[in-house]
Automatic annotation (TrEMBL):
The lineage of its organism: Eukaryota, Metazoa, Chordata, Craniata, Vertebrata. ATP binds at G123, P124, T125, G126, A127, G128, K129, T130. PROSITE patterns: KINESIN_MOTOR_1 (PS00411), KINESIN_MOTOR_2 (PS50067). Keywords: ATP-binding, Coiled coil, Cytoplasm, Cytoskeleton, DNA-binding, Microtubule, Motor protein, Nucleotide-binding, Nucleus, Ubl conjugation. The keyword GTP-binding does not apply. Residues 390-426 are annotated as: Disordered. Its main location: cytoplasm. It comes from Enhydra lutris kenyoni. This is Kinesin-like protein. One of its GO terms (biological process) is spindle elongation.
Amino acid sequence: MDAGVMGQLRRREMASAISGAGRCRLSKVGAGRRPPPARVRVAVRLRPFVDGTDGTGDPPCVRGLDSCSLEIANWRNHQETLKYQFDAFYGEKSSQQDIYAGSVQPILRHLLEGQNASVLAYGPTGAGKTHTMLGSPEQPGVIPRALMDLLQLTREEGGEGRPWALSVTMSYLEIYQEKVLDLLDPASGDLVIREDCRGNILIPGLTQKPITSFAEFEQHFLPASRNRTVGATRLNQRSSRSHAVLLVKVEQRERLAPFRQREGKLYLIDLAGSEDNRRTGNKGLRLKESGAINSSLFVLGKVVDALNQGLPRVPYRDSKLTRLLQDSLGGSAHSILIANIAPERRFYLDTVSALNFAARSKEVINRPFTNESLQLRVLAPVKLSQKELLGPSEAKRARGPEEEETGSPEPLAAPASASQELSPLQKLSSMDPAVLERLLSLDRLLGSQGSQGTHGLNTPRRERMVLMKTMEEKDLEIERLKMKQKELEAKVLAQEAVDPKDKENSSPTMLRPLARRTVTVAKPLKKAVVMPLQLIQEQAASPNAEIHILKKKGRKRKLESLDASESEEKAEDCWELQISPELLAHGRQKILDLLNEGSARDLRSLQRIGQKKAQLIVGWRELHGPFSQVEDLELVEGISGKQMESFLKANILGLAASQR
Ligand code: ADP
Ligand code: MG
C-alpha cells in the first residue's frame, strides 16, 4: 500500500474517531480540502461473434485500435470511421480475467479503506453484459471473481491477531420499472431509498445476508437470480428487463479502543439492455418497460457525464438507479462502467448508441472502414431515404459540412442483392427510415450538446465547457428577449382591444405601441392574451368557421373576450367550444411535429412544459425516436397520463389556430 493511501487511511480513521462512520467524516475532516469527485472510468468490451459465425461471412462493423481505442464505420460518411477513446478497451480475444484484473480488481482494496465502489455493465441485450458480470462456470465473470477475492482479503485482513474484525454481507435487488425489489425476499414489494444525515444511501428493509465463504454466497445468490424479471424480446429469449444490483458490504470493527467502525460498499450491476424499442418489436407493457429502462439509463448517462465534467449539479435524484448509487458513483467512490458491444452488423445502431453513451471524446478519421468502392454503392440508398425522409431544411441540418461541400450526386442504389455481401454497413441500405431518423436526431442532440459536433471534437474539455456555458447563457438571453417581445406584443393588442380609436392613430411599427406600455391596464391584457378566444371571435363570424361556440347554462365560467356588450350576461353562463375534427387533427399534428422536431427551448414555449419536462421529452425522443402520436407523451417517465391530457387540452387549440 503506498504512502498516499496510508495517509488517506489515517485521515479517515481520525475522522471516524470524531464523528462515526460515513461520508460526513470525510467532509468534516476534509473541510476546505475535500478530494475532487472521482471520475467514472469507462471501459469498452467487444465480444466475439457468438452465433456460430467467425465473422468471415459477416465482417464486424467495429474493431479495436489499441488498448484504449476502437473505430467503427461512420454511417453518415463512408469515407470516414469514427475513433472512440476510453479508459480501457478490451477486444474480442480478451478473457474474463483480463477485464477483471485490468478494471475491477484494483478498486477492491478501497472497500477495506471504508470507501465505496461500483461496477456497472452497460450495453444492448446480447452484447455480453451478463457474461461480463456473471459469466459461466467455465468462464466466471466479475461477480464471482470479485466475491472470491474480497472474501479472501477479508479473511486475511480480519484474521485473529489483526487490529480489525471484518464481516461481509450481501444484498441482491433489482430495479424494475422504477421499483426497488428485494431478490432475496421477493414478497417484500417496492422498497424506498433513503439518505441518512451523513449522506449515506440506505434501503430500509432490504435483506442482508452475512457471507463468510463463496459457497455461502452462491447459496443465496443463485436462487435469487431466478427471481429476476425477465421477458422475451425478439433480440434475446431471456432478455433482462431490469437492472440487477448486487450489493456487497464490508464492515470493519476495531478490536481495541477506540473501537472504530467503518464500512465499504461495492455495487456490482448488470444493467438492463439499452437497445432501441422499435427494433425489439416491443409493444404495450414491454414498451413501457423499455421506457423506464431507457430513461433510467439516460439519467445514468447524464450523471456519469456530470461527474466526468466536474459539473456542480449531478442529477442523481432523477432515477432510482442513480439515487441508489449516489454514495457509490462519483464523490469519493471508485466506479467503472463497462460498455459491452457486439461485432455483428445487426447491432450497429445499438453499438453506436452505446459508444456515444460511454464516450465523451471521439474523433473522425478520414479512412473508409473497408473497401471504399464497395461502400459507395452500399451507402447511396441511405442518403436517398434520408433526403426523402426529411424536409430540405432538416436534411441540410442533418448533413455534415463535408457532405454539403461534396454535393455531387451519389450513384444510384445498387440492387439489394448486389450489396448483400459487400460491407459492414450494408444493412444500413435497408434501414428502417424511423431508425435513420433516430440516428439523425441522436447526432443532432450530441451536436447540440457540444460532445460530438465536429467543432468541439478536439477542443480541450475546459474550453468546450466554457463555450457550452456561453452558448447556454446566450440561449437564455434570447429566450428572455423573446418572452419580453411576446409580452409587449400582447400588451399592444390589449391596448387596441380596449380602445379601437387608438388603433387608427397608432403607428404601423412596433415601436410606438411599446412606448405606450406604461398606460396599459392589467384587465384588458388578460383578455388579449387568450389567443384561442380571439380567434374564435374572428372565426365565429365566418360561415366556414371551424370553431363554434355553444352557450350552456348553469355554470359560472366566464369568457371575457367575446362581445363586450354582452359581457355581464355571460358572467353567469358557460361557454363551450365545438371545434371541427379537422382543426383538432391539425392541432395534434402540430403538437406532434413540435414534440419530434422542437428543441428543449421550443418545447418550453408550450403550455405546461417547463425546463425539466422539455428535457425529459428531448431525452426520450433521442433514445426512442420520434413520437408516433401525441399520447406517447405518457411514455415519458415523469409525465403522467393526467399531465399528458392537460398538456393536450392546454395546447391543442392554440397550435391548431396558429398559422392556419
Ligand atoms: P447480455 O447480458 O448483454 O444480454 P449475454 O451476456 O447474455 O448478453 O451474452 C449473449 C451471448 O453472448 C451469451 O451466449 C454469452 O455467453 C455470449 N458472450 C457474451 N460475451 C462473450 C464473450 N466475451 N466471449 C464469449 N461469449 C460471449
Ligand atoms: Mg443479460
